[in-house]
Structure formats: C-alpha cells, structure tokens
Amino acid sequence: MKKNMVGFMGKKLLLTVILGLITAWSGFCSSLSFHVIQHNDSLNNVCESALVIEDEIMNYFFNAGYIVTNVPACISKSEEQDLKFYQNGYNEAANGAFDEFIQIKLYFTGSEEENIKVALGNMKKISWKVVQTTTGKVLEEGNQDVTVDVAVDSEANVREFASDFANHLNKVLGKRA
Q1: Rounded to an integer, what distance in angstroms lies between the CA atom of residue 85 and that of residue 102?
Q2: Phi, psi dihedral angles at 52 (to 5 degrees)
Q3: Contact indicator for 13, 41 with CB cutoff of 8 Å
C-alpha cells in the first residue's frame, strides 16, 4: 500500500510541475487579436484576396509564437461602420485579455467578377491601427498605397505582401520572428 501511495504522489507532483511550467511558459506569450475590413462599394462578399491576407497574417503570428485570434473579415461601407467594427473588435480583444488589437482595412476597386482571382491588382490601399488593449495606447496607425504590375500579379504576390505586412506589424509590436 505504501508503494502505491508513493507512486501516486510522484505522479501528482510530476503533473503539478508540468502544469506549472505550461502556465509559466504561457505567461511569456504575447497575444493579439486582429480584424480585416474590406472596402469596395461593388462587392457584396469578402473577396478571396482579403481572406488570403487574413490567413497569412494569422499564420505568421501563430508561427512567431503569439496566441492569436481574429474577428472574421467583413465588408464596410463607411468610416462610421469602421468605427463600430473597431470598438467591437477592441472590446472583444480587451475582454479576452489579449495584449493588442489590430484593425486592418483593405481598399479594393473593381467588380465582383474582377475580384474572383486572388491577386493584388484590385487592391489600392491598406491602412492599419495597432493598439494596446490594457492602456488604449496606439502603437502605430498608418496606410500604404498598393501598386502591382497586373501582368505578373498572382496569389503568391498576395501571400508575400501579407507576410511582409505581418513582419512590419511584428516589428511594431516589438517582437522579432
């Protein structure tokens, strides 16, 4: 009986140590939430290019060791709607105890048919806002025009663009992947 009790206590101690290490390790992980918002008056659905950008950003930060989540990409028709999306996303991130919230706006031109292909050719601008959820401090707010030679445009361009953009955001967050 005494031998079984020692075995049980040893397993219990080992389990406690393992759980303690996992808890300590997760305390060092940074976490973020982001939201991709698409602008284009002629699109009724989120285009594939926006979804690929969302996916690449998610994968980049996950692979860099972040705890990451996102609000599903959506369409906005106005700055007022953007502000509502921002407030909702920020509140969700803060309530979920995420360190930062990033709102990313993608501005597309062209019709539904022109935006079926995954490409950067119809994206004209990207803007972003990176905010600490604990303090409300804006770490960076910016925008960038997007220019691509349509003749060589491809899904690989979209993925590379999104990865480069995520790398920029990572630098803003003070982490190097």
Answers
A1: 11
A2: -65, -40
A3: no
Per-residue pLDDT band at 26 (split at 50, 70, 90):
very low
CA distances from 102 to 3, 69, 87, 125, 174 (A): 55, 11, 11, 16, 14
**Rounded distance between C-alpha atoms, residue 48 and residue 88, angstroms:** 24
Q: What is the pLDDT of residues 41-95, one digit of tens each?
A: 777 888 888 999 999 999 999 999 999 999 999 999 999 999 999 999 999 999 9
Long-range contacts of range 133-142, CB-CB < 8 Å, 24 or more positions apart? 133/90, 133/93, 133/94, 133/98, 133/99, 133/100, 133/101, 134/94, 134/99, 139/100, 139/172, 139/173, 140/172
Structure tokens at 165: 């953009």
DSSP 98-157: -SEEEEEEEEE-S-TGGGSS--STTEEEEEEEEEETTT--EEEEEEEE----GGG--HHH
As a whole number of angstroms, the distance between CA 42 and CA 133 comes to 34
Helices 48-63 + 155-172 axis angle, to 10 = 40
- Closest among 140, 136, 139, 134 to 95, alpha carbons compared: 134
- CA-to-CA distance for 35 and 85, rounded, in angstroms? 8
What is the spatial distance between Cα 131 and Cα 80, in angstroms, rounded to a whole number? Answer: 19
